Structures are given as C-alpha cells and as structure tokens.
C-alpha cells in the first residue's frame, strides 16, 4: 500500500494536469486520476505485463478523459486536433529567468494559441518529461509527428522572445544571421 | 543553417532527444552566433521551470482510497489489509517518543521500490505482501493496527471478527487471540461485528470502560481528546464496566447508547435513564440514550455512518464537528468565534470533499470559512 501511495503521489500532479487539459475541471480531473488508480489496483497482479507503466497510466487517463468528453458533449470531437485543450504549462517567474514580465505574457499567449494537439505534445514533453516515443504512444500519433509538433511549438516560443544584440539593443529585424526558410 | 533547422535542433536539445551529431551541429552554430545563443539560453531557462506541486496530494490520496474501497465492496480484504500498518508492539514510550518511526521504517524499506524507475514500483505488487507478511510473523505477542488522521480501514481479527477503524484510532490485540478471553485495547473509534463464541468472551478495553460481549455489533467511540466515551449497540448485547468501578455493570440492549464522561467517570458512577433535564447538569457522568437512525428507511445508525464513508452529525456542536472534520480530512479547524462553537448541526454528508462539507455547513450555519492548505478557519 505504501508503494501504491507512492505511485499515486508520484503521478498525481502529472496525470491531473493531463486530464485537466481535456476536461477543464479540477474535480473531474481528480476523479479521472482516481479512476485510473482504481483500474491499476484492479489489475495489479497483471501489471508486470505492462511494458511502460508511465505510458500506460497516461493512456488510461487519456481514454477516461475522452470518455468523459464523449458523454458530456452533444457532438464530441472526433480527433485530438478538434479538442479545445487547456494548456497547463508552467513558465515560472520572470525574475528567475532572463526575460521580462511582458515577454512572459507573450510566451503564455503563444502557448495558448498553439493548435490543440501541438499544445498537448508540448505539455507532455516539457512538463511531464516524456520521451517522443511515449507521447506518440499516449496520443496515438507517430513519433515523427511529436518531433515536428514540438519543433513548431519551440519555434513559435523562440520567435516570441526579443532579439537582443550583444550591444543590448532590442531589435527584431537583426535576425539576419539566418536564412529565412 | 535554416531557421527551421535551428528550431528543430533546439527542440530536440530541450527535450533531450538530440543525437550527438545534431548536438555538435547546434553547438557549432551557437558558438558562431551569440545573438542566437542568448535566445537559446532564454528558451532553455524557460523550459527548465518545473510546475509546482499541487500540495493536496495526501488529501487526494485519502479521498481516492475511499473511492477505491467503494469499488471493492465484495473484495474488501485486499484493500484493508494493505491500508493498515501492522507493527510489532514496542514499549509504551514508542507513542510518545516518535509515533511515525515504525511507519518510516516501513516507508524506507519500500522507498527503493517506489523510487525513480516506474518499473521498480511494480516490484512492490509482488514483494510488498511478502514483506508485510514477514513483518507480521516477526512481531511479538501483540499486534497493533492503527489509522492515521484522514484515513479509515477495516480489518478482520484472527477469530473472524470484523473491525472498522475510524481515523486516528488504534487497536491492539494478542496475536492469534489465544487464551480464555479475546481481548482488544482500543483508543479512538471502532465499529465491531463480533463473531459469536460463548466459550471465549470478547472484551474491549478503553481508558475508561471495559466492554464484554458475546456476539454482537456495536460502535465504540473513545478518543482521548474528547469529553465522552460512547458505546452504541446495534444488535446483540454487551456489558459495560467502568474501569474505576468494576462493580458497576451496565447491560446494553439493541439500540442503546451509553455515554460516559471521561473526566468524571472516576469518582461517581450514576445511571440516568434518558433524562434531557439532567443531561445538562454538571454532575452527570453517564447518559443512557438511544442510537439514532436518520430516518425510518435507514438501516445504518448515525453512530455507524462512518463505516459507510458518511460523515454524520446529529445535533452536534460546531466544536465537536470540527474535531471530526480534523480527523476525517487530516486538517486543522480553527473556530475564530467562541459563541459559534456551541451552534448545533444535524447533517449527513456522503463521500464528499472537505470543500463540499464546509460548503454544506456554511449554508446551514450562515458563517464564513476559508481553507488554506491544511487549515480551515471558520468565522462569523
């Protein structure tokens, strides 16, 4: 039971964030996480057959979240990209980083505006520290999709950062050291 | 290098998916382009921010256990045997010196299992029961089963007797229950469904009373920090003896409830038959009443509601309710206003979160409250 509690505590925050992205309610997300662990308890004797527990947990959480959405929406979305996903991404305090509060706001804005699937992928890789392959398994997309989507998310974030010349002048036009692709 | 290529390499670096060749390519480019390096560094420091922990996980885990137990109604033993901590009885000082010590030891032993790799966590599901079993057989003559604040559990004693243990409670019994008596020491609250065995009576010791039973179901509430010790009989019959006056014996019939004042139980023992006038006077050490059924349709008495995951208050003062909530949810409840402490409530709340319970009370009591992590403050 100790280990069960450890397992629960270890994954609660991550699974809760993940479920919350779908259901957008703290209470529902908590119930979904609880259901995930009831499921785990029920199959505890067969858990050795599970290849990657982390992926397994997130996959169940994803299924339960989608089940919930199917139940409450009249016209449930058919693909991940049609879902309205709420980002739960921590960007920290500007003081701790090298950026201004204003930049931080625009970073949040960028995340907000990412396509839903891209946002989810970004969240899973950054916040939950999942590998591309794991994210691909959970969201049932190809690892290449994860790789491309994350590059898009990072590019948009990066472009929201001000260009700072070594002299200290902030300018966005002097990005000339790179060829535009 | 194209801009797209740069961002791809950056994203691979941040996520840790980059290959050595790709990293060399990125490093080489960054070394030549300080402006882009700065951008890269900013992004990296942003990336490394970790989300804050929700901080409510232990509450949430307890809530989860309650939900889990509801899902396992026919398979209860699995859950119960795991929730409790079975530990060898150590000398009395153990409680005073470091109550969490035995738990920690178990925790430490399990820590490796619950460590970094998820696959290791799995190990427990096989090793865990073995370790627990070993712990049990290695124990001396006595077993202690205890629950923490915010958790409950159900156990089966060696004779088949079922015991529901409420939060922050403890029972101790001789291993295997050998001897002419089946004896259990209780502190806190427990509901007993005792297997009938006329040859070997079942005796429960609390600080104030001893309860002798043959075969029966009843609830005993005996928290050290509460004024009264309560015995509520659901069926069968029990005999209650005051610890300080063994000659005083009270036989309870079904639906009887005996309330004994912990402080005053010593000097006088006076039996009073359900007398609302006198229960308010100071001299009463003992009240004889009836257990409550919230409605005719209910088969579970208010006193035993907690065994069904229901918090039930029957004309209880806010002060008493606060104590129950503290144990149930493992929080601290502060009532800012003296006068409010005596307000009485009758409410039954099933399987709800702390927030929902407080909300129900707020509506009934027209007060204000705030929840700050593990502290609840109630004010007018």
Q: How are helices and strands ordered from N to C of chain B?
A: HHHHHEHHHEEEEEEEEEEEEHEEHEEHEE
Chain-averaged pLDDT of chain B: 70
Q: In total, how many domains does the architecture of chain B comprise? A: 3
CATH class of the largest domain in chain B: Mainly Beta
What's the main sheet of chain A like? none
Low-confidence stretches of chain B: 73-140, 266-284
Order of helices and strands of chain A: HHHHHHH
Tell me the β content of chain B. 25-35%
Amino- and carboxy-terminal Cα gap of chain B:
67 Å
How would the global form of chain A be characterised?
Answer: globular
Largest interface, C-beta within 8 A: A-B, 67 and 63 residues
What does the average pLDDT of chain A come to?
78
Q: Give the CATH architecture of the largest domain in chain B.
A: Sandwich
Distance between the termini of chain A: 55 Å
Helix content of chain B: 25-40%
Bin the helical content of chain A. Answer: 55-70%
Show unreliable segments of chain A. Answer: 165-177
Cα-atom Rg of chain A, whole angstroms? 19 Å
Could you list some keywords that capture this structure?
heterodimer; A: 181 residues; mainly alpha; Rna Polymerase Sigma Factor, Chain: A; Arc Repressor Mutant, subunit A; 2 domains; 7 helices; B: 380 residues; alpha+beta; Jelly Rolls; Phage tail protein beta-alpha-beta fold; 3 domains; 14-stranded mixed sheet; 3-stranded mixed sheet; 11 helices; elongated
């Amino acid at each position: 039971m100790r280990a069960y509690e450890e397992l629960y505590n270890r994954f609660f925050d991550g699974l809760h964030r993940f479920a919350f992205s779908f259901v957008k309610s703290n209470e529902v997300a908590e119930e979904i996480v609880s259901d995930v662990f009831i499921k785990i308890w029920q199959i505890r004797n067969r858990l050795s057959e599970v290849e990657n527990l982390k992926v397994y947990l997130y996959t169940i959480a994803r299924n339960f979240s989608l089940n919930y959405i199917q139940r409450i929406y009249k016209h449930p979305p058919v693909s991940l990209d049609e879902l309205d996903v709420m980002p739960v991404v921590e960007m920290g305090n500007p003081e701790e980083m090298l950026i201004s509060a204003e930049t931080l706001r625009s970073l949040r804005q960028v995340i907000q505006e990412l396509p839903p699937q891209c946002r989810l992928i970004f969240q899973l890789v950054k916040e939950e520290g999942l590998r591309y392959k794991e994210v691909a398994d959970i969201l049932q997309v190809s690892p290449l999709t994860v790789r491309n989507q994350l590059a898009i998310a990072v590019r948009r974030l990066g472009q929201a950062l001000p260009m700072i010349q070594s002299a200290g002048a902030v300018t966005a036009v002097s990005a000339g050291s790179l060829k535009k692709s | 290098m194209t801009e797209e290529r740069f961002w791809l390499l950056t994203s691979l670096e941040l996520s840790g998916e980059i290959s050595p060749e790709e990293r060399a390519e990125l490093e080489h480019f960054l070394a030549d382009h300080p402006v882009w390096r700065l951008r890269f560094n900013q992004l990296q420091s942003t990336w490394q921010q970790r989300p804050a922990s929700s901080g409510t996980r232990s509450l949430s885990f307890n809530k989860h256990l309650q939900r889990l137990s509801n899902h396992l109604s026919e398979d209860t033993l699995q859950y119960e045997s795991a929730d409790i901590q079975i530990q060898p009885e150590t000398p009395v000082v153990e409680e005073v010196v470091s109550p969490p010590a035995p738990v920690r030891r178990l925790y430490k032993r399990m820590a490796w299992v619950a460590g970094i790799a998820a696959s290791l966590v799995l190990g427990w599901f096989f090793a865990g029961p073995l370790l627990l079993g070993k712990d049990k057989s290695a124990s001396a003559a006595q077993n202690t089963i205890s629950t923490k604040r915010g958790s409950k559990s159900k156990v089966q004693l060696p004779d088949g007797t079922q015991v529901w243990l409420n939060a922050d409670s403890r029972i101790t019994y001789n291993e295997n229950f050998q001897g002419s008596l089946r004896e259990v020491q209780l502190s806190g609250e427990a509901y007993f469904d005792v297997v009938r065995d006329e040859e070997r009576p079942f005796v429960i010791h609390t600080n104030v009373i001893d309860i002798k039973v043959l075969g029966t179901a009843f609830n005993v509430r005996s928290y050290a920090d509460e004024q009264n010790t309560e015995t509520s009989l659901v069926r069968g019959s029990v005999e209650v003896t005051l610890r300080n006056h063994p000659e005083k014996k009270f036989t309870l019939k079904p639906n009887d409830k005996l309330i004994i004042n912990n402080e005053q139980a010593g000097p006088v023992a006076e039996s009073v038959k359900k007398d609302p006038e006198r229960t308010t006077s100071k001299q009463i050490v003992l009240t004889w009443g009836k257990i409550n059924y919230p409605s005719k349709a209910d088969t579970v008495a208010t006193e035993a509601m907690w065994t069904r995951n229901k918090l039930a208050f029957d004309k209880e003062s806010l002060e008493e309710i606060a104590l129950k909530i503290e144990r149930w949810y493992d929080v601290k409840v502060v009532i800012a206003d003296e006068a409010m402490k005596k307000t009485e409530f009758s409410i039954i709340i099933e399987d709800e979160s702390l927030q929902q319970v407080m909300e129900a009370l707020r509506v009934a009591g027209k007060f204000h409250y705030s929840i700050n992590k593990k502290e609840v403050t109630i004010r007018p």
